[in-house]
Amino acid sequence: MSDKEIQRLAVLQDVRDQRITQVRAAEILNLSTRQITRLLQKLKKDGVSGLTHASRGQPGHRRHDEAVKSECLSIISEHLLGFGPTLAHEKLSSIFGLNIPVETVRRWMTANELWIPRSKRLKRPYQPRYNRDCFGELIQIDGSYHDWFEGRAARCCLLVYIDDATGKLLHLRFCEAETTFDYMLSTRAYIEQYGKPLAFYSDKHSVFRVNQKSSQDSQITQFGRILSELNIDIIFANSPQAKGRVERANRTLQDRLIKEMRLEGISSIAEANAWLPSFIEQFNQKFAKCARNSKNLHRPLIESDAELDDVFTWQEPRKVTRSLTITYDKCIYLLEPTALNHKLVGQYITFMEYPDGTVAITHEGQKINYSIFNKLSGLQQNEVVENKRLGSVLAHIQQQHEELEKQNKRTRAKKSMPSRKAQKAVIEQRNLNPVLDCCN
C-alpha cells in the first residue's frame, strides 16, 4: 500500500470505531462524505485489499507485446550490436519497420545488458604521460588572466610559452587581453629568439581553433594560418589537466612573479614586459631541467624580416567592385585606377592588417596602392583598427563613463548648493536676529 492508502485506512478505522464522524473524516482526507461511505463499504466487504488501486500489479494497457520485445532484442543482438539506443531506434524504424519509442528501446537494452548508461560506466582513467624528449619538440602556450599588479594597475593577461621537455620558460608577455594580435607579437618574438618549434600545445581558445560548426571543414583561425605558413603544427588539449605543465607554471607565476614585481615597484604592463627577461633567466636557473635528449629541434628561420611582417598579419579576402573599391571594417578603400587594377574587378584580393594597426592590400604578393574613403563612418583608420581590440576599447569606454559620472556629481552638487546671494541673506538674517531679540 502507498502512504496515501495507509493514511486512509487509519482514518477509516477511526470512523468504524466511532472515534470520529464521517464528516470529520471527509475533512481530513479532503474527500466527500459519499466517498467516505463507499470506502467504508469496500473496507467492510474486501478488507484492507479493498482500499488498494485495482490496476496495481496489472500489465499496462499500452505495453508492448512480448513477441515484439523479443524480436527487437534479437535484431539488436544480431545486427545492431554496439549501437546506442538512439541510433538503434532510428535503424529499427527505418530498416526493420519497428516503431518503438527510443526510451523503451533504451530500457530494454539496459535491462538485457546491451547498453550501459553513462552514469554506471567506469570513469576513464587519465594516466600521466612522460614529457617530450627534446627541447623544442612541444611548446605549451596559454594565457592567464589575473590581478598581476595587485591593484596598482588593471587586471591583465600573461601569455606563457613553456617547453614541455625541460620546463623552461621561453617567453612571457603581459597584454590587456588574450587576442590574436597579442599572440602574433609573442610568437614572433619567441621564434626570432629560439627558432621554429615542431608544435605548439594549446587549449581550444577561439584564437587557436574555430569552435563554431561550419560547412567549411578546412576553416582555420588567423593564428592557425600563420603557423601553417611557418610549418609549425598546433595540437589542442581536451582538458586543462592535459596541459598540466603550463597550468602549474601559471600557478607558480601567480605567486612568485607577483611578489617579485612588488619588490621591483613595477606597476604597468610596459615596465613589466621590459623587466621579464631577467625574471625568466632566474626562473629557469631554479626550475628548468635537462631534457632526456640533448638535441634541439628548433628550426632556423628562413623568412626575412619583411616576409615575417606579412606573415604575422590579419588577412581576409575582399572582392574588388567595379568602382575599384573594397570595404573592410566599416571603411572604404579606393584602389588606384591603373590598367592593372582594372583587371582585378570581380576578383578577390588580400586585405592585411598588421599588429601595429597599419594595413596593406596585396594581390599575388604584390602591394597595391590605395586611399581611404570614410563615407561609411567618420572614423579614422587607426580608430577603425582599435575597434578590433575589444579590451582596450572597453577600458576607454569605462574611463569615459567614470569621468562623465564625476562631472554629473559635480553638477548635482552645484545645483544643490544655495547661491551666493542666498548665503549672504542667511548670514545677514542670523546677525540680525540677536538685535531684534534685544529690541523686543
TrEMBL record:
Residue stretches of biased makeup (Basic residues): 409-423
One Pfam family here: HTH_28
GO BP field: DNA integration
Region spans: Disordered: 401-424
Name the UniProt record assigns to this protein: Integrase catalytic domain-containing protein
Every Integrase catalytic domain range: 124-308
GO molecular function: nucleic acid binding
Gene3D superfamilies attached to this UniProt entry: Ribonuclease H-like superfamily/Ribonuclease H
NCBIfam families: transpos_ISNCY_2 (NF033594)
Native organism taxonomy: Bacteria, Pseudomonadati, Pseudomonadota, Gammaproteobacteria, Moraxellales
